[in-house]
Amino acid sequence: MNLMNTKIQSISVNALWHQIRSRPLVWNTIITTFFSTAGKSVGFLIPFCIAVWFGVSSDTDAFFFVYSVVLFLAGIFSPITESVLVPFIAELKAQDESQVGKFLGKVLVLVTIGLVFLSVIFLLLSKHLLPYVTRFPPESLQLIFRLLVETAPLFILLVGTSIFSGALNAYKIFWLPAISPVFRATIVIFAIFLLKDSLGVHSITIGYVIGEIFRLIILGVETFRRGILSLNLSVHVEPKLFEFLKKSFYQISGMVAVAFNPIVDRTMASWLGGGNVSILEYAERLYQMPLTLISSGFFVVLLSHWSEDFYTGDKRVFRQGVMSTTKIVGSIALVLTALFLVVRYPVVGLVYGHGKFPTHYLPAVTTVWSLYLLGLAPTIVGLVCARAHLVLKNTKVFMRLGILNCFLNIVLNIVLMGPFGIYGLAVSTTLSYTAVSAMLYLTFLKIKTT
Questions:
Q1: Among 6, 80, 290, 430, which is most buried by a count of CB atoms within 10 Å?
Q2: What pLDDT does residue 322 have?
């Protein structure tokens, strides 16, 4: 009987394994999520190490403000270059694959030139604007500007790695872009540990820059080795490149507005007194963990497969896939939300209740994280619909909804911050992202894909 049960179990496992391997979307999702989890898990340790080694202070407020600014800039361009590239490369592969390398090379050259120019302009403007838009003390403002100068190269490097990641993802080489953040994160943690006593928060910026350089080299070498990239120094704008730049512009406009939200939140948090910027950052880091893992695993594979299906297959199948995926992912997100809310107190205590982190800040971090979690399910559903819009190259919707998101966030911040303080900022973020996610879903329903 035991032998028979063993054989039955073996057959069941083999059958399940065959089913998984026979479905490219499922198999690639599992593999990419595994590598992404490994890659991101080390990165998630960074803010926790900062919490233990630096606690909550004016210096951490300054660093987290700067980091949100860098992420603001990178968040405008990195997701766009990585995600918008995928349907364009999928279309080029279907038409004339020999043009992919030249197209990618020109994108890399034009984007790098533009970002260097933008970085210089941003640094010049920030030095004069920061005293007027924030309420940091003079010594913190000086530290913020120095940190901005130190992290400026990180902005350009992040976009470069996104271009290489997008190209590799379009060719269904998911594992290397997914695992690559582990190299950067390891270097960051090592640099902080070695230099924290001598350089303070500057050790964090140095670690990030060195780590991203290493990551860029790894992805760039692999892209070139596989023949996906052709180093073309020409900046001649061909029709396909012009279309890419135009579609990217619409999404950039929207991403400017969306990515501006963390800057707005942290600026307003600085009005509430010392420590509030750090509280917001620590809570958001916890919230970003499930969101990042899903978006960097499942959504990466989804965009690549949907793009290929749309340009080479039946468009009705694409639409059906979007609708069914939305229901499944939304249900899973609701379960995750309930689970995190149940364990929120022990999780925050386990993560932040160590080292120099003041324990009296733990309840505030827990409450802010809980308020963010209420928007997890609608945000994830919105991200699914956003991938569908990207496949259709419907980037105008990002411009419109991005502006709406920013407007809602600012208005709700002003209304809610007075009576509820830091918690009002968290509620504002949840409500604005929920509204935009609903609009992404409704606008997709109105689009005809046949």
A1: 80
A2: 81
- Our measurement of the distance from residue 232's CA atom to the centroid of its chain's CA atoms, rounded to an integer in Å, reads 29
Q: 269-275 — which CB contacts under 8 Å span 24+ positions?
A: 269/422, 269/425, 270/61, 270/65, 270/134, 270/135, 270/136, 271/135, 271/417, 272/417, 272/421, 272/422, 274/57, 274/58, 274/61, 275/56, 275/57, 275/61, 275/361
Residue 248 CA from chain centroid, whole number: 17
> DSSP letters of 88-137?
HHHHHHHHHGGGHHHHHHHHHHHHHHHHHHHHHHHHHHHHHHHHHH----
Dihedral over alpha carbons 220, 221, 226, 227 (to 10 degrees): 70
pLDDT tens readout for residues 178-188: 788 888 889 98
What is the pLDDT, as a whole number, of residue 20? Answer: 46
> Rounded to an integer, what is the distance from CA 13 to the centroid of its chain?
35
Under 8 Å CB-to-CB from 372, ≥6 apart: which residues? 283, 284, 286, 287, 426, 429, 430
**pLDDT for res 389:** 79
CB atoms within 10 A of CB 257: 21
Residue 355 is classified by DSSP as T
Mean pLDDT value across residues 81-101: 70
Query: Is the sign of the CA dihedral 244, 250, 253, 255 positive or negative?
Result: negative
Q: Which residue has the tokens 């120094």?
A: 233
Provide the pLDDT for residue 37. Answer: 63
- Using alpha carbons only, give the angle 30, 286, 288 rounded to the nearest 5 degrees: 55
Token representation of residue 438: 């609903």
386 Cβ contact partners less than 8 Å away, ≥ 6 residues apart: 398, 440
417-423: list long-range contacts, CB under 8 Å, 24+ apart: 417/268, 417/271, 417/272, 421/272, 421/276, 422/269, 422/272, 422/276, 422/279, 422/280, 422/364, 422/368, 423/367, 423/368, 423/371
